[in-house]
Design goal:
With about 170 residues, the protein is mostly helical. The chain has 9 helices and 2 strands; from the N terminus they run ααααααααββα. A two-stranded antiparallel ribbon has the order 1-2.
Length: about 170
């Protein structure tokens, strides 16, 4: 029970710290900042639990006793953090699919005519924002009038290519 309690407490503290910082100023490299915040809270939290178990006991909280409990707290926290970061990256900017669904939803029960849909779904909405995100994340850069991948972008592309090849061997579909 201590693992669940302290893992959740640390995660909520990191999440609140993240929300407060975002209200003050939205960082340019949001995922990197999220990783710093969450792993910083984990390290400080674990060290605090390890160093100050008696004050916690006086407040009615039981600090973890064993190294195994601390490892479990860290693994639980890291799992929550990575799940949150994956979710955050999906909501950080509107995905093309989400923009399309929202556009159709905004049309109401009568639906959205195909021509009106085609007019609103332009490269400005669907592609240019994603390119800007790739440049901001330093995955790509402009070389004259060409987009080129950075070493980090090449690594990410290779991971996606490997994953797609792996999935094609096991299943059909997208």
């Amino acid at each position: 029970m201590r693992v669940l309690l302290w893992g959740c407490i640390l995660f909520v503290l990191a999440f609140l710290f993240h929300i407060i910082l975002w209200k003050i100023r939205l960082p340019k490299r949001q995922i990197r900042m999220l990783l710093l915040i969450f792993f910083g809270v984990l390290i400080i939290g674990i060290l605090s639990l390890w160093s100050f178990p008696l004050p916690l006991k006086a407040l009615g909280f039981s600090a973890p006793y064993t190294l195994a409990e601390y490892i479990h707290i860290a693994l639980f926290f890291i799992s929550l953090t990575l799940a949150y970061i994956v979710t955050y990256s999906a909501i950080e900017v509107d995905s093309p699919s989400m923009i399309m669904v929202m556009q159709i939803d905004n049309a109401g029960p009568d639906g959205l005519e195909k021509m009106a849909f085609a007019k609103t779904m332009t490269n400005d909405i669907l592609v240019k924002a994603r390119i800007k995100d790739l440049i901001t994340a330093e995955l790509t850069y402009m070389d004259g009038d060409k987009y080129k991948l950075t070493p980090k972008g090449v690594l990410l592309a290779r991971i996606f290519i490997f994953y797609r090849k792996l999935m094609k061997n096991y299943s059909k579909g997208g």
